[in-house]
Amino acid sequence: MEIPPPDAGKLLQSWMEWERGDVTPGRVMANLKTGGLRQLLEELAAQGGDAAGAGSTAGAADGGDVAGGWAPLV
User: Taking 60 as the threshold, does the pLDDT of residue 52 lie above it?
Assistant: First the structure.
């Protein structure tokens, strides 16, 4: 059985249903899992689009301490 590639639009639609309160957290997690969220995140991480790298760049641009790790903006 071949697994279809993730559809970012459908994943976003599932997320938005949860934000509106249309579905329970368990249902949205199931939808995200079966919709291929893991595969999509793995692809993005492999392309260098991981959250840690993006956050570090933004921190350096606004004068944040990147070497020290994450720091909350106040």
Answer: no
Expressed in angstroms, the distance from the first to the final Cα of the chain is 50
Report the 10 Å Cβ neighbour count for 36.
19
22: phi then psi, degrees, rounded to nearest 5 = -75, -25
- The CA-atom distances, in angstroms, between 55 and each of 28, 43, 52, 62, 70 are 26, 18, 5, 11, 8
Question: Does the global pTM surpass 0.90?
Answer: no
Residue extents of the structural domains in the chain: 8-53
Residue 35 pLDDT exceeds 90: yes
